[in-house]
Structures are given as structure tokens and as C-alpha cells.
Amino acid sequence: xxxxxxxxxxxxxxxxxxxxCESEEDADLILFNTCCIRDNAERRAKGNIGAxxxxxxxxxxxxxxxxxxxxQQDSAGETMAKKFxxxxxxxxxxxxxxxxxxxxxVRSARKRSVxxxxxxxxxxxxxxxxxxxxxxxxxxxxxxxCNNFCTYCIVPYVRGRERSRxxxxxxxxxxxxxxxxxxxxxxxxxxxxxxxxxxxxKNGFARLLxxxxxxxxxxxxxxxxxxxxxxxxxxxxxxxxSKNICNNIHLPVQSGSDKILQLMNRHYTRDYYLSLIExxxxxxxxxxxxxxxxxxxxxxxxxxxxxTLDLVNKVRYSGAFTFVYSPRKGTPAASMPQIPAEVSxxxxxxxxxxxxxxxxxxxxxxxGKVLRxxxxxxxxxxxxxxxxxxxxxxxxxxxxxxxxxGNFYDVKIVKSQSASLFGEVVK
Length: 427
Ligand code: 5AD
Ligand code: SF4
Description:
Layout: H1 2-15, E1 29-34, H2 39-51, H3 53-58, E2 63-68, H4 69-72, H5 76-83, E3 89-91, H6 99-109, E4 113-115, E5 137-141, E6 143-144, H7 155-159, E7 163-164, H8 167-179, E8 184-188, H9 204-213, E9 220-224, H10 233-241, E10 248-250, H11 258-263, H12 270-283, E11 288-295, H13 302-315, E12 319-324, H14 341-366, E13 370-378, E14 385-390, E15 395-399, E16 408-417, E17 420-425
Parallel strand pairs: 1-2, 2-3, 3-4, 5-8, 8-9, 10-11, 11-12, 15-17
Antiparallel strand pairs: 6-7, 13-14, 13-16, 14-15, 16-17
Helix pairs in contact: 9-10, 10-12, 13-14
The site of iron/sulfur cluster (SF4) has 10 residues, from helix 7.
């Protein structure tokens, strides 16, 4: 989400004549796009914003701006404005459309802007220019905001309620991206499975995927994030029957304990989640399923954590983002009793070890198999090597050069190493 929003900011700035530069020292403008999902994201952003003071000292004409979720928290805008006098522009999550105007004000009169509108139900800005920087993949927002209010999560407070883009607008952008030559499109939303509910559509996400499935061409579609409570058989059927929609689903479980899931306000049980996995695998045996998992949520005891480990062992995710719970001011869980940091630390190590072992085992099973891979980039290490993902989302490194990027290859896997696969092109 944030990457794509940065692409929108870049699109707006390019209309004013700005271009990307190599280093902060060369910059006429530095824009920080912030995140506040966990404390360490916020601390890093604050550290970087504070450190930018030196660039302003060296170049007094430098414009420094801050956008993104951090600014939208309760009174964060005013606090930031006081704490960072070197920052010229502070924009809330629904004020990006004012970026150009604010930059002009600083350029012409060195006038500071702090614009943070309430974000609960803002309108969707359809005409924001986008400067895409993500290579073969294009991000595409299908909706904004979240209605779920998981008790640990700040997102509903800083991104407002769910607002879906119309089917016509999403499909127009989708077709444009394919015409422009993008080989992969990732549909974005906090909870894509509830796409269209606010527009009165019934099972809107399945409808949208059906429309996308009708479009022919050599491209791939991915989507994120799915909420288990809204993922259903109809959605799985469309994915299973479409050639272009990847069998790859990010389905965050958060915890394997019913007690914790209820305290998190997730609206599903562990058994329901496991039955979803079974349903998905019965229709798509090779589906890559990934997850977000948290440890150290209030009231999580050893038994609850065992349930999480047990679920991870049962599901065998092809990948997982693992987090230590971080209290967010203003959310219900922040006022629940917190568990000791050393307990969370112990649990996250065990969870990561378990998940790493599973990924290694799954990787091994790919050896000798042929995967269809979209070449995305030159490999970070090794001359003459390129990399890209398989349909199920695994990163594969194989022989190629800059001309390989953007093409599909059948790659035979010859070696695996943790989460990485290495192969040779067979076609
Ligand atoms: N602490 C830790 N992890 C969090 N997430 C969301 N809020 C928090 C929090 N307060 C995680 C969830 C979510 C992912 C995007 O970030 O696992 O799925
Ligand atoms: Fe946060 Fe829950 Fe919404 Fe995801 S579904 S953005 S975790 S409130």
C-alpha cells in the first residue's frame, strides 16, 4: 500500500518537474512516507525525519515533507510540526491530492502547510497521477480503508472506513496496465475480500476476479490482503478456474488460539481457518499460502502459543511474516495487560525457527520440478543470473540477462536453499 502511495506522490511531484535523484544531498525535496503499524516503523521514521535536518542546514531551499499513516494518529500532526520545525509540509492520509499545492506554497512564499483532514469516510481521488517504479509488477488499489477494527490494529483509525473503487474504474486501470505491457498486476486492499460491499455488490471480489479472468493475454494477477472471515468458496473457484489469477493467497491467521483470536476481534476460529485452508487446497493443491502471525498479544499464555505453533505445523505456509505484538495508542489491546518482552522474544524465535524449517522442507520438494517464472529483475548476487517468482510466489534464480526481464520461463529447479530456489531454463 505504502509503496504504491509513494508512486502516487512521485506522479504528483513529476507534474511539478521533480525527478528522482541519487542522494539526499542532491535533493530539492525530500518526502517521507511513514508507517505506524508497529512502534519500530514509527521510531525509524521519526529518526530519519529528525536526521534530515542536516540536509536542510546545507541547503536552506530544501523542502521536507511528511505523509502517510503516522501523521494521521491522534494529534500527531501538531506534535510533529512542533518537534520537527525543519519540516515544511505534513499531510494526512487523505490529503495527498494537496501535495502539489503545498509544494508550490513553500516554493513561492516558504509557507508551511499542516493538512490533516479527518479520514473516516473521505472520497476517492480517481485522477491522481502515478509514477510506477515497480518494474514488471504494477500495484492497483481496488479499495481503501478497513472496517474490521482488529483490537491490535491502528489501520482503521488512520485509513478510515472501507471505500471500494467502482468496478468500471478498477477494470479501466487494469486494462490500461496490461496494454502498457505490465506482466503482473497486484490488486491492493486492506481486506480485498470485502471489495464492493460498500457499493452494494454481492460477493464483489469474486465478481471483480471474474471480470479480470475474462481478459486474455500473457500476464498474472495477484492480490492482497485477504481476511479469512470474508474469503469464500466462490472466490476460490474463480481463482482455481482462471489461468491468469495466481494460485497464491496471503491469508493472515494472526494466532492459532481461539481465545486470542476472539480477543483480537478476528471473527473466526482456528477450526474455521483450517477448514478454509482445506477447501483452498482441495481446489488448488499447489496453491502457495502465506500468512501474518503475531506473538505476545495480551493474555497469550504458553498454551495459546502452542496452538499457534501447532497451526503453523498443520498449515505449512510457504511463507509468513512474523511479528511481536506492538501496542498502538488508542486501540483496545493497548489498554489490556501486556505480557513481558522476554516472553514475546522467546516465542518469536521459536515461531521463526518453526516456519524456517517448514519453508526449507517445502523448498526441497521443489527440486526436480518445473515452475513457470516471470523474470522480474537481475539477481542481487551472481553475474548472468536473473530472478523472479513462480505462480505460487516462490523466488527463483536462474540464468539470464537484462533482456530476460518481463518474460515468462519454464525453469527446472536444481537446488534449494532456505526460501530460495535455483534453476535452469527449460523453455
Ligand atoms: N503489532 C504487531 N503487528 C501488527 N500488525 C498489525 N498491527 C500490529 C501490531 N499492533 C501486523 C498484522 C497484520 C500485519 C500487516 O501487521 O499481522 O496482518
Ligand atoms: Fe488491521 Fe484487521 Fe483491518 Fe487488517 S483487517 S488492516 S489487521 S484492522
